[in-house]
Amino acid sequence: MMLSSSQMLFFSTLSLGTLLSVSSSSWFGAWIGLELNLLSFIPLISSKNNQYSSEAALKYFLIQALGSSIIIMSASFMMSFNDLSTLLFTVALLLKSGAAPFHFWFPSVMEGLQWPQVIILMTIQKIAPLSLLSYLLYSSALPIIPAAIITSAMVGAIGGINQTLLRKILAYSSINHMAWMMSAILISETNWLIYFSFYCLISTSVAILFNYQEAFHISHILNHSSHSSQMKMLTFSSLLSLGGLPPFTGFIPKWLIIQEMISSHMFVMLAILLSSALLTLFYYLRIAMTALTISSPKTKWSMKLTNSSYLTPSMLYFNMFGLLAPSLFMIIL
C-alpha cells in the first residue's frame, strides 16, 4: 500500500509527537507531544473507502481530548495536592493507552479502522502514554496500577471470547497485553521495553497477515486459507505466537516477566495474568484450529489470492523468521 504525500506528512508529525513526549524534560512538553500525536493521527484514520472511519475518528478525538483535559486539570493540582495530581495524570495516561477500566473506546475505534491504521493504534500510539506512565511510576507508587493490571487482564481475556470480528479480537488481545506491559513497568524499564518490542513485532505481523488476506471476520480466514497450506500454517503460527505459546517468539517476553514477578514475590498478580493468558490462548486456538481443520469452497477472494500467490512464499518466510528465529536463538544459547 503506497502512502500519499499528505499521509507521509501526518505520519512524520505523528512520530515527531511521540518522540517529543518521550524525550521531553517537562510535563508541558510531554503534553504538547501528545496533542501533536493526536492531531496527526486523526487525518490518517479518515478514509473515503471506509464508511466507519469518520465515527472512529470522532470517538478517538473525543477520548483523547478528554485525556488531555484531565492532564491539564491534574497540572492545576500539582502545587497543593500532589497525590491527587499524580492520580489524575495516571488515569489520563491509562485512558489514552486504552487500558482497563478505561478501555471502553478501544474496541469500537479499532472496528472502524483499516489494518494499517490498526497497526499504528496498537503499537506507535501506545509508546508515549506508556513511557510517561513509566516515568510517573518511578517517582511514586500508586494503588491504581495493580487494579488496572488485574482489570486489563480479565477484560482482555473474557471480552475476546465471544468475538468473531478479527479487529475486536486483536483489540481485546491488546488490552490483555497492556496488563503484562504495566506489570513489566512495575519491575523495570528494560523489561517493559523488551516486552513492548516483541508485542509490536508479533501484532504487526498478524495484522499484516490479515491485511494481505483482506480478512475482517473469522469466516474470511476460512475462505482464504482453504486452498493454501502455507497460509494455514502462517495463520496458525502467528496467532499462537501472539498468545504466547512456546516455542514461538511471543513466549519469550512472557517468560522474562514471569521470572521477574516470581523474584519480586508478585504471586497473586502473576496467577491472574497466567489465567488470563490461558483464556486468550483459547480464542486464538479456536481461530487457528478452525483455519487448519475446516475446508470451505474457494471464493472470489481465494481466486484473487491464487493470482498473487507469488507473494505468499516471501511473506511466509518473513513471518516465520520473525516468529521463530528469536526463540531458536535463545534455545541455542
Automatic annotation (TrEMBL):
Keywords tagged on the record: Electron transport, Membrane, Mitochondrion, Mitochondrion inner membrane, NAD, Respiratory chain, Translocase, Transmembrane, Transmembrane helix, Transport, Ubiquinone
Record keyword Signal present: no
EC number: 7.1.1.2
Main location group: mitochondrion
Recorded coiled-coil stretches: none
Keyword Transmembrane in annotation: yes
Matching InterPro entries: Complex_I_Subunit_2, NADH_UbQ_OxRdtase_chain2, ND/Mrp_TM
Catalytic reactions of this protein: a ubiquinone + NADH + 5 H(+)(in) = a ubiquinol + NAD(+) + 4 H(+)(out)
Transmembrane segments: 57-81, 87-106, 144-162, 169-187, 193-212, 233-252, 264-289, 310-332
Record-level GO cellular component terms: mitochondrial inner membrane
One annotated GO molecular function: NADH dehydrogenase (ubiquinone) activity
Cellular compartments annotated: Mitochondrion inner membrane
Ranges for domain NADH:quinone oxidoreductase/Mrp antiporter transmembrane: 24-279
One biological process term in Gene Ontology: mitochondrial electron transport, NADH to ubiquinone
Membrane topology per record: Multi-pass membrane protein
Pfam families: Proton_antipo_M
PANTHER family given in the database record: NADH-UBIQUINONE OXIDOREDUCTASE CHAIN 2
Similarity field: Belongs to the complex I subunit 2 family.
Protein name: NADH-ubiquinone oxidoreductase chain 2
Gene name as annotated: ND2
